């Protein structure tokens, strides 16, 4: 397990890049770290294996504060925390095989062991046929898979990814995300991914850290992140919802009518819950907006609905609906 407590990073005694960072990563989890440019994402990633020493705070790996270790102890710890850099950082003068084998060569592992381990790993990432190729002969996806194989060669407990899909086309991005998921499941590795792409968070992450101006603005499960931060994310990252709220609220005119937001999560997202409950009451619904998002393990959905009824029927309807969905919010 990796646990971060009260982590601070200050450059030149005045640039406070990271401010009291707190979060944890359980064994086998995939954690996404997301934020706008300048939020401190890459700086945070570099502190986690002490490529950048924090100004203050604690970084616990399996209950050991690695910020207190000496150079020799830290060298051993870094074998347990590998990093895949944004621009791959492959050595142009070495083949795929030689790039992946480099950590083992530094450790002076026997040649036969190096050959067996590297070939096995290249086969697992579907690169064995490229073992004698140089980086200049590889596609972006092949370079990324080579970098991933190199990060895995020392059998780390945790792998850090810095924007692993930022320079890849959509098809290659999906293959890389599938590979990361496979590594997580088959090898039981904990994974931290710095990204600015919401699709990466949605497709493969269990939890998310949302950095904002160097602070943790949110830490928790992915579906909770998208539900709690929906309006902010639509404004800051993408215009997925283009709702004219002034006009929407003007639709609701009756004294007892309501404008509600209904959030579904998990298996109930695809069930006719709203329809079944509505049939029990003297209710008229006008659906103004709806969407379903498919996350790593479960879908979640959002509906914006005008509800037309009497006050008594409205109260009973909202009470039963709230008991059967993830969340009901009365907007007007």
From TrEMBL:
Which controlled-vocabulary keywords does the entry list?
Amino-acid transport, ATP-binding, Cell membrane, Membrane, Nucleotide-binding, Translocase, Transport
**Has the keyword Manganese been applied to this entry?**
no
Entry's Gene3D superfamilies? Answer: 3.30.70.260, P-loop containing nucleotide triphosphate hydrolases (3.40.50.300)
Q: Which GO terms describe its cellular component?
A: plasma membrane
Domain of life, per UniProt, equals: Bacteria
**One Pfam annotation, family name?**
NIL
Question: From the Swiss-Prot or TrEMBL record, what is one GO molecular function term?
Answer: ATP binding
Residues in ABC transporter domain copies: 2-238
A GO biological process of this protein is:
amino acid transport
User: Which family does this protein fall into?
Assistant: Belongs to the ABC transporter superfamily.
Please state what the protein is called: ABC transporter
